[in-house]
Amino acid sequence: MASSFENYNKRRLISSYFSVVLSIFLVLFLLGTLGLFVINSKKISDDFKENIPMTVFFNNAATDSVINSFDVELKNAKFIKDYAFVHKDSAAKNNVDIVGKDFMEFLGFNPLQNSFDIHLKGDYVNSVSINKIERSFRKNEMVTEIIYDKQLVDLVNNNVKEISFWILIVSGVLTIVAMLLINSSLRLSVYSHRFTIKTMQMVGATKSFIRKPFIWTSIKLGLIGSALAIIGLICVVVYVDGLFPSLGIAKDYTSIGIVVFGVLIIGTIITSISTYFATQRFLNLKTDDLY
Fold it and tell me: Which residue did the predictor score with more confidence, 191 or 52?
């Protein structure tokens, strides 16, 4: 009879620990994922911005020295991520490959111009910086036209600001929810031991002596939940890096280290503080109030 009762208590204890670990894992995994996104948000937005091309067209009268001089200017410019020179013959060939027809057969000449396809660094993809860059390029008399999607540039920058604002709001809400969920799970776990706590107190055990094993157990549960959350975050990093290798998220060991350290610290601090206050509550209760 006693054996079956002990087995029942063990199963209930394991179930209680499992629910605590699961709560900690889910909450810290969500917080860690959000943390990774926040840390890499600039990198993500810059990657998108840097894929917006700017094309600079040159007059057919432009000599090789003019083209080479502009090439050197781009190479030394601090705002250039990368660029490529597109000869008008190559542009015509690419047009044939896309359209399937050679327009030069009935025109009798190549109307296209030599050009440079330019990708700017993310920090310079805004209306103010691009206007300055455009004005500096137009100082070259051989430049006939500069094309880029102005509306897309404005749209991207406005959306980045809006998304950043909402990320901060969601981060704050999730942090509060995380603390409440973990605290609730740990309080339920301590609640199942309320009679043990009161019995130990009645036989003369000090409050600190009673609290220590509960806090240490909660810290271990927090570390287990944190470890599971870290494993899940590493899987997310590997998956995202496979989808967007240009971001280099998996190679950004500093950001990953910050998130991993943050998950461990949050898991440890929240569990220990929540357990402290939960045990303190039952230590201060009268015996009649336990029921």
Answer: 52
Residue 1: pLDDT band (50, 70, 90) is very low
Q: Locate 207 and state its tokens.
A: 């409050």
Measured N-to-C along each axis, helices 41-49 and 2-39 cross at an angle, to the nearest 10 degrees, of 40
Please list the residues that pair with 119 across neighbouring strands: 53, 82
Residue of 275, 256, 270 lying closest to 177 (CA atoms)? 270
CA end-to-end span of the chain, whole Å?
A: 25
Lowest-confidence pick of 27-41, 173-187, 257-271: 173-187
Please give the single-letter amino acid code of residue 87: H
Question: What is the value of pTM for the model shown?
Answer: 0.67
What value does the mean pLDDT of the chain take? 79
d(CA 205, CA 212): 11
> Domains of the chain (ranges plus CATH)?
15-45+156-290 (no CATH), 53-148 (3.30.70.3040)
pLDDT tens sequence across 171-218: 777 777 767 776 776 777 677 677 777 777 777 777 788 788 888 888
Residue by residue, what is the 3-state secondary structure of the chain? CHHHHHHHHHHHHHHHHHHHHHHHHHHHHHHHHHHHHHHCHHHHHHHHHCCCEEEEEECCCCCHHHHHHHHHHHHHCCCEEEEEEECHHHHHHHHHHHHCCCCHHHHCCCCCCCEEEEEECHHHCCHHHHHHHHHHHHCCCCEEEEECCHHHHHHHHHHHHHHHHHHHHHHHHHHHHHHHHHHHHHHHHHHCCHHHHHHHHHCCCCHHHHHHHHHHHHHHHHHHHHHHHHHHHHHHHHHHHHHCHHHCHHHCHHHHHHHHHHHHHHHHHHHHHHHHHHHHHHHCCCHHHHC
